[in-house]
């Protein structure tokens, strides 16, 4: 994908997110966007639908959180 | 005074109990060293001197009267400034939290205090544990005690600096992509990231819910083993905390490595591409030492380093973005630029990318845990393949990678410990990483202690600052 097309994606994401990027930092943040895209390319591959993600919560971990407690939320 | 600060946690414990060492005197020496170094080192944001002296006096009295709260009783420690501390400012190094005083302690801090440990204060961090050191934060960034022009690593930067300069034998850190092991590597200390779920994260400001780990930075492996034995344990109010018994980590320390099978992942070094030859040589020398102590060391092949790194980044970025989204939109000016920009990059990750990363994560966890550590007792990997960079060479790229090879074990959740592997010709510390099976921190300590005992690295301290501190004391 050429830089113009990537730039349109970047602009759309920034607008949707509601972020304000100073003009003198636009190119730096656009480069960061391209770096994220590169990482995305590394992890994306055709996988079996049966390959579940890590960190699927078990019921026990959710229910014990509901007990609440002092000092939890920073 | 300063020789008191050279005593290990175990030596302090023996001295306290036979009456030859006073917790109050040790705490006073630690506070004096903070006073002597903090103007230049900035390892502490907040010093709780009165509180520390009161707790030390109480510990002295308790121990004299036969009340023994365990191996950290009367031992001073520092706390990274993202851990909640009751009645004490917890700033996260940020203007956003400049007035936040918690009404309760983080779970691991409470365990240490219940064990009689003496909190010295709050150690500097990188703002919200991400980004890079900069002068826009609420407190100044910590510096590297081996050379003040160099960074101490992050984000547990003050903890690493404080331990290296001998203020304390242990300070708490947190590690989402290497924030315990990184500063440990660059400051020449030990940094233990336990298994995910081993230590409660409750009361520690989150960076990434699925990647955050809490643990100690310490001067020696034994100090780390003792500290972790007190701060680890099941917390039902941390949804990720595991109900797994905590063994006596000191039991394995003297067993050596004879008969152990150790894997070495060498290909990541070449793939990373920035390795300093002296850093690589130090790891190979360490492997030879482990062989000479009786271990079998074999080179193994894992998935490319890029895959681990991409997976880690695509998990952390959206998670920290979700945590900070409101402030990034409503009051972004209160963040320092490096942290703000790093956090904002989370907006670039799509939901399906995040799920893909989670699916890759399971595959990588299986690779490390079942394929490699199913056949070996431990794994050696590089930690930092470069020495600490200079502050004036940091640049302004928010996604800059730093030569740290720590992220893979946040992805897989395995216990991983950075140990000092000698010193570069530039005078800065070198490092390597010891990785164990899930919940087998004991094996990591066993390997680390055997290596440490075979070297003389623990005899070296940052000379210039130590001399300055000694003169002031």
Description:
The complex is a heterodimer of chains A (74) and B (473). Chain A has 74 residues and is mostly helical. Helix content of chain A is 54%, strand content 0%. In chain A, 12% of the residues are buried. With 473 residues, chain B is α/β, with parallel strands linked by helices. In chain B, 39% of the residues lie in helices and 13% in strands. Chain B has an eleven-stranded mixed sheet, sandwiched between helices. The longest helix of chain B has 26 residues, at 305-330. The interface between A and B is large, with 41 and 55 residues. Chain B: Residues 26-444 form the Amidase domain.
Keyphrases for this structure?
heterodimer; A: 74 residues; mainly alpha; 3 helices; 54% helix; disordered C terminus; B: 473 residues; alpha/beta; Amidase signature (AS) enzymes; eleven-stranded mixed sheet; 15 helices; 39% helix; globular
Rounded to the nearest angstrom, the distance between the terminal CA atoms of chain A is 42 Å
Low-confidence stretches of chain B: none
Q: Count of helices of chain B?
A: 15
Largest interface: A-B, 41 and 55 residues
The quaternary structure here is: heterodimer
Structural class of chain B: alpha/beta
Radius of gyration of chain A, in Å, reads 20 Å
Give a count of the beta strands of chain B, DSSP E runs of length 2 or more. Answer: 11
* Averaged pLDDT of chain B: 96
State the shape of chain B: globular
Largest sheet of chain A: none
CATH class term of chain B: Alpha Beta
Give the total of domains of chain A: 1
Apparent shape of chain A: extended
Order of helices and strands of chain A: HHH
Strand content of chain B: 5-15%
Tell me the radius of gyration of chain B: 20 Å
The total tally of domains of chain B equals 1
- Walk across the major sheet of chain B and give the strand order: 1-3-2-4-6-5-10-11-9-7-8
Provide the low-confidence segments of chain A as ranges: 69-74
Protein name (chain B): Aspartyl-tRNA(Asn)/glutamyl-tRNA(Gln) amidotransferase subunit A
GO molecular function (chain B): transferase activity
Domain Amidase (chain B): 26-444
Organism (chain B): Thalassobaculum litoreum DSM 18839
